[in-house]
Design a protein that fits this description.
This protein has 468 residues and is an all-alpha fold. It is built from 17 helices and no strands. It has two domains: 202 residues, Clc chloride channel, CATH 1.10.3080.10; 203 residues, Clc chloride channel (Orthogonal Bundle), CATH 1.10.3080.10.
Length: 468
Amino acid sequence: MQNSTCLFQAYEEYRIIKENKLRNEHNRSLLLDRQRHHLLAPSILLGLLTGAVSVFFHLSLDYGEALRNQVIDFAHQQATIGPWIVMGLTTTAVFLSTGLVIRFSPEASGSGIPHLKAVLLGLQPFRWIRVLVIKFVSTLIGGSAGLMVGREGPTVHMGGAIGQGLANLWSEKTFKDHSVLVAAGGGAGLASAFNSPLAGLVFVLEELDSRCNSFEFFAAAIACLTADMVCRVVLGQYPTFHLDITGAPPLNMLIAFLPLGIVSALLGYLFNRTLLAAQKLISLPLWPRIIWWFVLAVMVTTVGWLAPDLLGGGQGFVNGIIEGKVLTLQTITLFFIIRFIVTIGSSSSGASGGIFMPVLVLGALLGFGVGSTIQLLFPELNVDAKLFAVVGMASYFTGVVMAPLTGIVLIIEMTGNYTLILPLFVACFSAQIVADWLGVVPIYEALLEKNIRKSASRELALSKGVDS
């Protein structure tokens, strides 16, 4: 009888504990649902605003690029003063785009993604209005002049700035964690820049905030979807790149993408080390920095005079390759070297502008070169060099940024072609493995560490000045 009573009491205690756990879990779910509902309106508004800014930014840069081409065409008709016209405009644009950043918003230099990561980690403040305005204007001036910078990183940064602004304006009782909308705005910026909502969401999870919780995931998903819809309504639903392939590559050809991943990791390592070393140019005293800006303007002018298609972000140039532009292996190598050097130079000028699209362009040239080499050495494989160019974008992006899932999803969405999935996995994850073995530090993480050290040194110098 006593044993039965003890068993009954134990069962009752177990039942009460279980009911309490179920009740707590139910209450927690209800609380999470209410908080998600509170996030719905600001997330939609964030997507709408980010999409609208992205569309205006896109159209402005397209107009600037068309204007640059008109100026170069006009200059070619002026035998004597033509190069000086291009040189004068390029120099003015370099000085203006860098000067705006230095004077009003130093954190707006470069792509802005390292600064956004620092904000999400609580390491730096976010002067969102300044960043939004200066980022837009500086990138527009520099990109229109021909600097090899992309609009995608700046769009991510501006999306984060819009998220910060909404978080500041929203009721503190309704929304306390500002990082949720900042991260979601960054993802919406990438989604609208490439018409790739899934890539924007994966970028938040993989690159911007590895601590991403269910709130950030929810807000990012809504913002990415809304921003992408805005861009599709205005710019159309066509994929960014138009790749025409008849079917999935045969399985026995997948091994051919392995060397592409290896080379992507090696040259990605070289890109990261070179870019980090070149960042010292931004910290030079004024007069050496002015000389460097002149050197950069000369490089851009020379490339623009001889091969204007290489200037700018490079999306049109990549489309030309994918749509069948014929290039010899020597020309591919020369173009890669030129884009490599001038991309590093443009990113080390101090002006605003991203490396996202320039890295994809380098990857396309690299993949095109590897595909053409395999085509020459093993003609029986009947490889398509254009396919290697597309896969090369994702594999080189992985070698530089170390975000293979973002690269894979991005290229699938940009081409609208799911049959690339296996070649992308082979190339990207082989690049990831080799890059890990080489000890490659992801470029945005390396730039973040460098910026934090620079800020700490500046604060220490200021504190010593105050003490003295």
